[in-house]
């Protein structure tokens, strides 16, 4: 490069501080994690409801919502991991994660739509190109949220099938509030729940790191 020709390439630090919405790599990371997570969640639910009971369990929104007595067919648990670590068992969840807020479908649909818009706005306005973990976290949250949103709209309830630590009991007959069993983990969940909780955990961690980074930068400057 001639000595008198200005360097138009942004410095590495300036590029790292570029808003995420102006970075193709940041969008690719966000959309890739979101699409992969959503696809895995929907595929796993479809697979579980096609195979776990020994025959396909067909669901329709009308059947689930219009028939108060509707129940999934009884079936035995399918061992997914040895030593009682994980079983497959089919459950319809009319609430949120861990069964919170049963039979409030419209509320959760509305909340998920608002949360989706907020997550995208957070990516656009609150993250920088260097914040790769935050991009992954938001992608996981979007994938999990929209995976369960799809179920609520399409089937009227969320399809769950993962039961962790089945048969493991709390000592002294203790029980979790709101549960009638002493199992260590009495809830049945799905991949979308894993994506949501993992994404939220990662975002909390990266927010803490960014806050610490800002304080150190302010102290040094």
Oligomeric nature of the chains? single chain
**Structural class, please?**
alpha+beta
How much helicity do the residues have? 40-55%
Main sheet: strands, sense, barrel: 4 strands, antiparallel
| Structure annotation, total helices | 6
Poorly predicted sequence stretches spanning 5 or more consecutive residues: none
Counting DSSP E segments of at least 2 residues, the number of strands comes to 4
Overall geometry: globular
What is the chain-wise order of helices and strands? Answer: HHHEEHHEEH
As laid out across the biggest beta sheet, the strand order is: 1-2-3-4
- Mean pLDDT across residues: 88
Q: Compute the gyration radius: what is it?
A: 22 Å
What would you say this structure looks like, in words?
The protein has 221 residues and is α+β, with helices and mostly antiparallel strands. The chain has a domain at 20-54 and 103-160 and 189-220. Helix content is 52%, strand content 10%. It has helices spanning 12-16, 24-51, 61-66, 105-126, 132-154, 191-220, and strands spanning 78-81, 86-93, 158-164, 188-189. The chain has a 4-stranded antiparallel sheet. Helix 2 (24-51) runs parallel beside helix 5. The longest helix is centred in the C-terminal third of the chain and has 30 residues, at 191-220.
Q: What order do the helices and strands come in, and which of them pair?
A:
Elements: H1 12-16, H2 24-51, H3 61-66, E1 78-81, E2 86-93, H4 105-126, H5 132-154, E3 158-164, E4 188-189, H6 191-220
Antiparallel strand pairs: 1-2, 2-3, 3-4
């Amino acid at each position: 490069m001639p000595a008198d020709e200005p360097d138009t390439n942004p410095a590495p630090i300036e590029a790292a501080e570029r808003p995420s919405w102006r970075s193709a790599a940041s969008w690719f990371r966000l959309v890739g994690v979101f699409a992969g997570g959503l696809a895995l969640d929907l595929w796993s639910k479809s697979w579980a409801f096609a195979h776990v009971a020994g025959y396909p369990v067909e669901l329709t929104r009308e059947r689930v919502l219009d028939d108060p007595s509707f129940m999934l067919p009884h079936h035995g648990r399918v061992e997914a991991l040895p030593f009682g670590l994980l079983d497959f068992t089919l459950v319809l969840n009319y609430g949120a994660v861990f069964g919170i807020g049963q039979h409030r479908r419209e509320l959760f649909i509305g909340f998920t739509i608002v949360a989706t818009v907020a997550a995208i706005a957070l990516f656009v306005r609150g993250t920088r190109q260097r914040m790769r973990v935050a991009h992954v976290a938001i992608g996981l949250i979007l994938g999990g949220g929209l995976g369960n949103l799809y179920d609520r709209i399409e089937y009227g309830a969320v399809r769950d099938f993962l039961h962790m630590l089945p048969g493991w009991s709390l000592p002294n007959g203790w029980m979790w509030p709101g549960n009638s069993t002493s199992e260590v983990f009495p809830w049945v969940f799905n991949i979308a729940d894993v994506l949501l909780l993992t994404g939220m955990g990662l975002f909390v961690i990266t927010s803490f790191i960014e806050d610490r980074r800002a304080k150190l930068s302010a102290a040094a400057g």
